[in-house]
Structure formats: structure tokens, C-alpha cells
Amino acid sequence: MDVLADILATTRFSGVLLAQLRSSRPDWGCGIDPLPTAGFHLVAEGVCWLRTDGRPPLRLVPGDVVLLPRGARHELLGAPDAAAVRYADLEAAHPPGRGGVVDLGGDGPVVRIVCGKFTYEGEAGQHPVLAALPELIHIPGLSADAELQGTVRLIAAETAAKRPGAQALATRLTDVLFVQVIRAWLERLEADGNGRGGEGVRGGEGAGEAGPSWLTALRDPRIGTALSLMHDEPQRPWTVEGLARAVTMSRPAFARQFKELVGSSPLAYLARLRIDRAARMLRDTDERVGDIAQAVGYTSEFAFSRAFSRQHGIAPGRYRRRAPAPLGV
């Protein structure tokens, strides 16, 4: 099974276009407050700068994409030393026009930036993909593969168009953009071979660093296979020995390498996977709690309810009635 696709589907992960910034002034600056989820920017035209706490300003050119997985506060600028005005104040002074364009005016070279975020179901800051990423990922357009470059160009074109369905198409493409950015980041980690993203994926020193996580573990043939097996059949009574045998490793070596790469033990990862799958079933189906418990590998509804409450802080029945909405909407 495609582990990344499974997790994105389980959490109902999706992209949202928020606005476009357009300016022809050299001294503009936009301050963006922290978000409870990931934010992204795509440079459609012109040159600008991204400034974040603790890092030097990052120069962005057409085709560049930046992803801030945990929605860190940041600033978009016309010059590296420009002063920033909060986005809410800029929006009030320059009400968005068609396509959500906040036009700051001016008579110099045009800069246009497409801004958006990603929503998901679950607790703020706890998405399993976003939590596995560094604070900032920068994918320069010139180093991106042809598929990512094509998506960026299409989003840039559709957000500038006035054709029917342009906004809907651009919004759908943000989901594609996210997966392609993650691929690019993982591929650079693989190319570097040392757990750090190179200049092609960083926005300042350390922005491409990655600690142990299931996401980086996907690069390992055996541990990645074990993750796929668990996602494909979480209801199976997996044991560490059984998983090790399935990927042709000794039990001690498998357990040690899994913990080193993923950051948790195999059975701890499996337990969380089962509860996440159960939460999706509670949201999306009318199946009885006992049937859901069996479907994800629990032989006792009581044991399932205890495990679910321990992870979510609420019993399965109450979780279903609460029907959580996606974050940030």
C-alpha cells in the first residue's frame, strides 16, 4: 500500500487557496501570523524574499515553492530588509479583487505570489505527515522535476485566468503540489544520504533537516516494506518477529532499525495506525463500534475503547457524535 496516500486519505488532507499577493512596489512587506496547519507559497511572477525567525532572508524566484509544515510565522518581502505589515492590515487597506488578489499597487516590476494552506481532520499540529517534516521546505523551480514544474506553471496560469472553473482547478492542484513537494524533499534526502536536505530543498541553514520519522523511513527498502504491510493489513495480529520475517531480517535487527528510522517501536506505530484507521471509520461509516474494533485488529471492544480514549482523549462513541471538522476552515 502507498503509505503516504493512506495517511492523507485517512486524515482528509486537502489544499485551500487563501489569496494572491501582487505588488509592483520595491518596499512592500507582508507579515503572516502563525497558522494551526501548514502554509505554502508559490511564486508565479517576479522576485521576492521570505523571512522567518532565526534564518537569513531567502530569495524566491518564479517557479519556487515554499512549504511551512507547522505554519510558522513568516514574512514575504519585496526586499530582504523591507518592513512587514500584517496581512490582515494589508487586506483591509487593499480589499481582494477577483481571484482573491490583494494588489498593493506600484509601477515597478510585478511580483505575484499564490498563497494557501492545507486542512485536515485531527488535532492542530498533530498531522503525521506535517509532524515529520522540517520547519521550512524550499523547492527551487529550477531544480524541481518536470512534473512539479508543470504543476506550478498550471497553478500560476489558472490563478491568473478568468476562465470558468479556474479557481476550482487550481485548488485541486494544490493536493498534487503537496505530494510532489514531499517527493522532492525525500528524493533530496536520498541523494544526500545523510538525513539532511541540500540547497535544493532548504530555506536557510537546517531547514531541510529530518529526524527519525515514518516518512523518511519510507526510503529504506525493508522498513518501508514493513510500513506498507501494516498499512495494508492493520487488523492482522502482527508481531515484531512476524514483521521481521516478512522483510527478511532478524528480529533484533529489525526492531533496532525500525526504532532508529521511524522513531517508535513497530508495535507502537501499529497501535497508532489502528486507532487512526478506526477514527476514519467512525467519521465515515455507520458501522458499530464493536465491528470497527474487530476491523482494525482488536478482539475486545473494551480494549479498543480504552486505546482509542488514550489516544484521542474521548470515547469512540463521543468521537463519532462530535464529528470533527477539518482544521482551519
Outline the secondary-structure elements.
Layout: H1 3-10, E1 14-23, E2 29-32, E3 39-45, E4 48-52, E5 58-60, E6 65-68, E7 74-77, E8 85-86, H2 87-93, E9 101-103, E10 111-119, E11 137-139, H3 146-160, H4 166-192, H5 214-217, H6 221-232, H7 240-246, H8 251-262, H9 266-284, H10 289-295, H11 301-312, H12 316-322
Parallel strand pairs: 1-9, 2-8
Antiparallel strand pairs: 1-10, 2-7, 3-6, 3-10, 4-5, 4-7, 6-11
Helix pairs in contact: 3-4, 7-8, 9-11
Output the radius of gyration.
Answer: 22 Å
CATH C-level of the largest domain:
Mainly Beta
| Average pLDDT number | 89
Measured by DSSP, the beta-strand proportion falls in 15-25%
Q: Which percent range fits the helix content? A: 40-55%
Q: Within the largest sheet, what's the order of strands? A: 9-1-10-3-6-11
Based on DSSP secondary structure assignment, what is the total number of beta strands?
11
Intertermini distance: 30 Å
CATH topology of the largest domain: Jelly Rolls
Biggest sheet statistics: 6 strands, mixed
The H-level CATH homologous superfamily of the largest domain, spelled out, is Jelly Rolls
Compressed to H and E, one letter per element, the order equals: HEEEEEEEEHEEEHHHHHHHHHH
Structural class: alpha+beta
